[in-house]
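PROTEIN–LIGAND DATA SHEET

This sheet pairs a single protein chain with one bound small molecule, magnesium ion, given as SMILES. Inputs appear in the order they were entered. The predicted three-dimensional arrangement of chain and ligand is reported afterwards as a token string under its own label.
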Amino acid sequence: MNPFVYGEKVKGENFCNRQEEIKELVSEISSGQNIMIFSPRRFGKTSLIGEVLGRLEKKGLFTIYIDLFPVISNEDFARISLKSISVLLSSNSKNILKKVKTFFTRVSPSLFVTFSEDGTPAIGINFSKNETYPVIEDIFNGLYAFVKDKKKRAAVVFDEFQQVGELEDSRVEKTLRGIIQEHREISYVFMGSKKHLIYDMFNNPHRPFFKSSAHFPLKKIDPVIFADFVKEKFLNTGRAIAGGTALHIVNKAEAHPYYTQLLAHTAWESAQEGREITAEKIEAAVNRILEREEAAFTNLWDNLTLKQKKLLLALVLKGDNDKIFSAAFLKRYNLGSSSTVQRGVKSLLTKGIIDKEGDVIEFNDVFLKLWVKKRMS
Ligand SMILES: Nc1ncnc2c1ncn2[C@@H]1O[C@H](COP(=O)(O)OP(=O)(O)OP(=O)(O)O)[C@@H](O)[C@H]1O
Ligand SMILES: [Mg+2]
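PREDICTION REPORTED AS:
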């Protein structure tokens, strides 16, 4: 079986290293620190926090993981949070409703039991739109009451937290901010992938979460360690690979966790048992991925304006030391004024094509970059 996994949370033997990150997060979270973890898409936030929560549970903390990806309204936020919290509050209990109700004050009468598709019971809630904020307060205060009652500490993770910043008004953000500063025994972890969105939530002085949490920017995996991981997986499945070739895979995918796994997976498909895989096979694997993505990339390209196309191509061809707003760069790629480029960068950010930290611009999709390079130059 192909040992390279991509597109889902990885754990155990499929999880490469990140020992330093795990150690630091476990220590910060157990000491009650609130943390904001951010990175571009698919860098491994969800996988990493999974490992961290596992360790925290072993240390005796309660852990709650709340995936906010499906949240598109304030009410969704309340319902999804309650569902995750009720799993903890009712665990090992037959009468889950009674157990959960003990810890909630105001919302108790509106709670009911529902069953998910696989038959596990969860708690649902009825409330009207104008009750949303008191309901959210009550849900998290109920959790706090539970944690204190058990004389424990807890870690609550909000994955895809930028969704909250995108809601129609900022009241969920405000309500939540008020709650978290009261809960000393709970450490809250906020994770987000649209870096510019989550970053603004925590660094804009006009927003509720300003300076509320320590920043934890998640980086890529160390290329050398990642190459060892790739090599070992090839060897363990009877495919020979030289260290340099494994490193070539990692470098080609710019050590991006998801794209490295994707490329390794695709290269492994063509590796023959007992025969050493060559650099040519890696290039062939890159081309196979580009072919599979051809329709999606063409579509993306077609939907860009002429100015955006020019800018994207310039970003692909840009040297490491080029400054994109410099006169020389603007002239070389015929990009117009620096304000035009500023607008262009903003639109590519909004489209999720690039990400930006300070002056550094990165492509979210390593293969889109390779595709543009191949097709346009
Ligand atoms: N520590 C790791 N070791 C090996 N592969 C990893 C690791 N972390 C992430 N990956 C690869 O990256 C993919 C995405 O990981 P994950 O879903 O955890 O990232 P994410 O940052 O939460 O992504 P998203 O932004 O989509 O929420 C995984 O399916 C896996 O292929
Ligand atoms: Mg994730």
